[in-house]
Every structure is written in C-alpha cells, then in structure tokens.
Design a protein that fits this description.
The complex is a heterodimer of chains A (255) and B (331). Chain A contains 10 helices and no strands. Chain A has 255 residues and is mainly α. Chain A has one domain: MetI-like fold, CATH 1.10.3720.10. In chain A, helix 1 runs antiparallel to helix 2, helix 1 runs antiparallel to helix 7 and helix 7 runs parallel beside helix 10. Chain B folds into 2 domains: 223 residues, 3-Layer(aba) Sandwich (Rossmann fold), CATH 3.40.50; 88 residues, 2-Layer Sandwich (Alpha-Beta Plaits), CATH 3.30.70. With 331 residues, chain B is an alpha/beta fold. The longest helix of chain B has 17 residues. The N and C termini of chain B lie far apart (50 Å). Chain B contains 11 helices and 14 strands. Classes of the chains: A mainly alpha (255), B alpha/beta (331). The interface between A and B is medium-sized, with 24 and 30 residues. The complex binds adenosine-5'-triphosphate and magnesium ion (MG). Magnesium ion binds next to helix 1 of chain B.
C-alpha cells in the first residue's frame, strides 16, 4: 500500500509517470516508424501484385506475382489474427536475436511492430484501392514508370486514407504497449500494474488512464487534421471518412 | 501516322469470351482528325487503348509515327507513350495536385527540370484558356475546365498524336462545342494528329476529317467524310444527315439526293419539274458543313412508282448527284 500522505508521494508519482510516459512514447514512436517503413511497401505490394496491378509480373513472371500476392495476403491475415499476447510470447526467441533481450521497452518494439505492420499494410491496401484506377491509367498514358506512379500517384492520392489508417494503427500500438508493460516492457502499462494494481494506488491508475487517453486524442486529432487537409475534393473527404470507418471496423481493438 | 493492321483483342475465356476487336485495320493520316463512332460495347475504348498499348492486342500490328509499338520493351514503350497524348472521358486528374501541378506531372515524367516545368505548364495552360486557374484544385473546376486541364496535361510533353476517348461525353452541348473548338485549334496550330472516339455524330460532323464506324468489334465503314457522304448506302452518311423515318406514301417514290461540293447549288427541283414534268414534293432536307464543305441531303417524293420515274432518276445521276431510292410504290 502506498502512503499518499508521505511528502515524497507527489514527486515520486510525477517521476514514475514521467518515466512511464517517456518509455511508452519511445516504444510507440519506434514501433510506428518500423510499421510505416515495412507496412507501407507491403501494402503497396498487396495492391500491386493483384491481377491487373502495377507489379502483376515481378521479374516478368505472372506466376511469381500471384504467389507473392498470396503469400503476403496470408502473412497479413496471420499477423492480424494471432492474439497479441500469444504473438509476443511466441516471438521471444526472435526478439532475443534482434535486441539481445526480451525485457524492456526496446525489446517491446519488436512485437509491437510485428502486430502493427500487417494491420497498417491492410490500411494502406484499402486506401490505395480507393484511388481511381483512371489515375494510374492516365499516368501510364503519359509514359510514367511504375515507381513514379507509386510515388506520385498512389501515395499522394491515398494519403488521407493512409493517415487515418495510421491514426488507428498508433492507437492500437499504444493499447498493446500497455499490455507489453504488464508482462515485461515498462512504460505506462507497467506503472498501472506495479502501482495501480499491486499497490492499490487509484491515483496512479487514474493518471495512467488519463495520460494514455490524452496521447491517443492528440495523435488522432493530428492525423485527422492532416487527412482532411490532404483530401482535396468533397469526394476525397467522404472517401477519407469511409476509410476511417472501415479502419475502425477492422481495428483489432474495436471502435 | 497511326496504322493498325489486323488487330484483334478478346477478353475472358470459354463461354464468357467477348471479342472486343475483330481483325481491325485502320489508317489515320498525319494531321487528320479521325473519329471512330459506334454503339456502346462496340469496342471503341478497347480500340483507342490499343493505340498506346494500354490494352495489348492478342494479335496484329500497331504503328505510330512509323514505330511498331507491339515490339517495344517496357522502357521503349514508355518513351513512345510520351509522344502520344491521351484525354479521358472522366478527366482522370490528380485530386491532390493543383491544375498547374497536374500539367507539370506530365513534364516530371519526361524529366523536365522544375523551372522549365513551370514555364511550359503556364504556356500550355494559356493555350487551353486556363491560365487564371493554375493554382486551383480540380475539385474547384467545372467539367469543361477539368477537361481543359486533361488536354493541357496530354499536350505538355509535346506529343505528335492525341487520343481522346469520349472526351466530351460528360459535358453539356455548349462546353462540348468549346472543347471541340480547342481540338481543332490544337490540330491546326500544333499539327497534331487526333484520333477520337465518340458516340455522338455531332462531334464527327463538327471536327472530323475522316471517320470509321465500329460495330461488334469490326470496322464497317471507313473513309474521309467528303467521300463517305457521296458513298451510296453509307450508314455514316445517313447518320450525318438524319432525315428521320420514311413514312408511308402510297403511289410515291421516295428518293434521297446528296449534294456536296460543286453540285450543292443545283436547281434540282425546278429541273425535275421542267424537264420531266414531275410534281416534286419535298419531304425533308438537311444542310451541314462537313469537313469544311457545304453538303446537304434532300428527300423528295415523286408521284408514281420507281419505273415510271426511272428516266428522271437516271438524269439526276448523270449529273453526278448521289441519288438513292429509299422507299416508294412497288413497281
Ligand atoms: N477489361 C475488360 N474485361 C472484360 N471485358 C471487357 C473489358 N474491356 C472491355 N470489355 C468488353 O469488350 C467489349 C467492348 O468494350 P469497349 O469498352 O471497348 O466498348 P465501347 O465501344 O467503348 O463502349 P462504350 O461506348 O460503352 O464506352 C464489351 O463487350 C466489353 O464488355
Ligand atoms: Mg468506351
């Protein structure tokens, strides 16, 4: 039990929360970074290797394209259907190889990225599929290369949808980062368990909830703001909203 | 300039196989405005998409500006496409870019540097009459303005050929007229060869030098408009001069006379009355300017059956007029 009347209580609380918040942001930031770096290309490939897609025939082979599409699709489905807690434990050997340990915020980045990558890849896929196929047709007619079409047509045109997808992705990363904290990771989840649960400190518990809530709200707000800003057309905006709804519906943490 | 030889294309397989193009051959001379008309599903879009190989034909040859496109590898094909502009029915503009940005996109593709891009985009936007809208986004434009951006983008890389798939089908008649006017300006001032697809005969009438009729994937008629209108039984010519349905006229022979070029001002009716003592009744008439020439068609009713009017009809034909017997009393 924690003594709330002790003169050290408030400074201690502050310090614990600061550390926890810092660790959470650290985990979330890097997990998000890897998620975008890996999830974005996977999402693009998922669309591209579809029939009639930009990368239908990688290295001139239609069969390879089909196989690549199936494999990516399978991996993404698998990644999304394994419960996080099981994924986290199952990949401990892998995490050890990559980070050297499976405990602590740095180690947590590995499972957090792994759970978010397939999710974000789907969001990217959905957003790009919403881009009018006429646009890549027009780009082809101008003699644009595939790479240019990805860079200058797909990504900018799908940006509003992808940003909303990113907002939902970051929310679930934060959620899962708390779960990591419960097991071994540090961060706000750890604060909630060690102080709020094990030492019955309601203040810690409430503070953690508020901080997580605020972080999520800020990130969502920023993402939505930019999504709106980049959605140039009224169609674009309603498109962004539909994708937003789809994203929420598909989210592993629910609406 | 554009030359398709025995081009075939089908979609699907087995029972669901549709033949979109069936052994199509077509020649578009340099500097021509060539229209392809046909009903929905005739294969018009497929045809125009094979010209820049957006659709790869199953067989046949496609030559543009002397280059065989079907033989090109990926990179060479991209370069060839840069010389073939294309305009789309639904504009297909990038919503994330301004008008200027959309035109510059075409220049980015061919690797023009940023300063030169700005200059050339501004120049082309002036040409299409959109200089003032350079910093607007497509969502802020009307349909006609969007299509002007589409045309500007297609012209930016200075192609020698312009393809247009139903570029005016989503526009009202007034806007259609102004876009067609722009096509003609481009054709005349920049010397572009234009191949356009349309289902509106009016478009052909307004700007085309030549036309082809596509039906179920086959070219049914094909030629210069001035020649087509004096071709007996030409469906394109009939559609160019819609005289309506032929009513029941007991005891009357109905003939259509087509005038073009030199014989447009013949006093035919007076002549029939004078030389053959026939009481001619006028059933319909249409005068059009086709490919810059006055041309017209008159539908006349002659009392009596075809045999009794044979001498009069032969006389008209002898003067070089196209006379078709389209209905009338049985002999
Ligand atoms: N990608 C495709 N897959 C399957 N069938 C197709 C495809 N594209 C065209 N077709 C078929 O080929 C035929 C010709 O189509 P096309 O689009 O060329 O017609 P169109 O003359 O342009 O018609 P519209 O005036 O309606 O645009 C149609 O029967 C159509 O169903
Ligand atoms: Mg069509």
């Amino acid at each position: 039990m924690i003594d709330t009347t002790s003169p050290d209580f408030w400074p201690d609380l502050f310090e614990v929360l600061l550390l926890g918040t810092g660790q959470t942001l650290y985990m979330v930031f890097f997990a998000l970074l890897f998620t975008v770096l890996i999830g974005l290309p996977i999402g693009i490939l998922l669309v591209g290797t579809e029939r009639g897609g930009l990368f239908e025939r990688p290295f001139g082979s239609l069969a390879f394209g089909r196989i690549l599409n199936r494999v990516l699709d399978f991996i993404v489905n698998l990644g999304r259907s394994v419960p996080f807690i099981i994924l986290m434990i199952a990949i401990i050997p892998f995490t050890r190889v990559v980070v050297g340990t499976f405990i602590g915020p740095t180690a947590a980045i590995v499972p957090l990225s792994l759970v978010a990558i397939p999710f974000f890849a789907r969001m990217v896929e959905i957003s790009i599929k919403e881009v009018d196929p006429g646009l890549s047709e027009a780009a082809h007619s101008l003699g644009a290369s595939r790479w240019l079409i990805v860079r200058k047509v797909f990504i900018p045109e799908a940006l509003p949808g992808m940003l909303l997808g990113l907002a939902t992705t970051v929310t679930s990363i934060i959620n899962f980062s708390a779960m990591v904290g419960v097991v071994a990771g540090g961060g706000l989840g750890n604060v909630a368990v060690t102080y709020g649960y094990q030492r019955y400190s309601t203040i810690h518990m409430v503070a953690v909830i508020i901080i997580i809530f605020v972080i999520v709200m800020i990130l969502q707000g920023v993402a939505t703001h930019f999504a709106k800003k980049f959605a140039r057309t009224s169609i674009g905006e309603s498109r962004a909203q539909t994708i937003g709804r789809k994203v929420v519906r598909d989210s592993p943490v629910g609406p | 300039m554009i030359s398709l030889t025995s081009v075939s294309k089908s979609f699907g397989s087995g029972a669901r196989r549709t033949v979109a193009l069936d052994n199509v051959s077509l020649d578009v001379p340099e500097g021509d405005i060539f229209g392809v008309v046909g009903q929905s599903g005739a294969g018009k879009s497929t045809l125009i998409r094979t010209v820049n190989l957006l659709e790869r034909p199953d067989s046949g040859s496609i030559r543009v500006d002397g280059q065989e496109l079907t033989a090109l590898g990926d990179n060479d094909l991209r370069v060839a496409r840069q010389g073939i502009g294309m305009v789309f029915q639904h504009f297909n503009l990038l919503s994330s870019r301004t008008v200027q940005g959309n035109v510059e996109f075409a220049l980015e593709v061919i690797g023009v540097d940023s300063r030169e891009r700005k200059r050339r985009a501004a120049e082309i936007l002036d040409l299409v009459g959109l200089g003032a809208k350079a910093s607007s986004f497509p969502s802020q434009l009307s349909g006609g303005q969007k299509q002007r951006v589409g045309i500007a983008r297609a012209l930016a890389a200075r192609p020698r050929v312009l393809l247009s798939d139903e570029a005016t089908s989503a526009l009202d008649p007034e806007t259609t007229r102004s876009i067609l006017e722009l096509f003609r300006t481009i054709n005349r001032d920049l010397g572009l060869t234009v191949l356009l697809i349309t289902h509106e005969m009016d478009v052909v009438k307004t700007i085309c030098d030549s036309a082809a009729l596509l039906e179920a994937g086959q070219i049914k008629e094909n030629g210069r408009l001035v020649e087509l209108i004096s071709t007996p039984g030409s469906r394109l010519a009939r559609d160019l001069f819609p005289l309506g349905a032929i009513g029941e006229l007991p005891g009357t022979t109905v003939i259509d006379i087509t005038f073009s070029g030199g014989n447009a001002d013949r006093p035919v009716i007076a002549q029939l009355a004078r030389d053959h003592a026939i009481d001619v009744s006028i059933l319909g008439a249409a005068i059009e300017t086709i490919a810059g020439n006055q041309a017209g068609r008159t539908r006349l009713g002659l009392p009596g059956d075809a045999r009794s009017n044979a001498a009069a009809i032969a006389d008209l034909r002898a003067q070089g007029l196209l006379v078709e017997i389209v209905g009338g009393a049985a002999a």
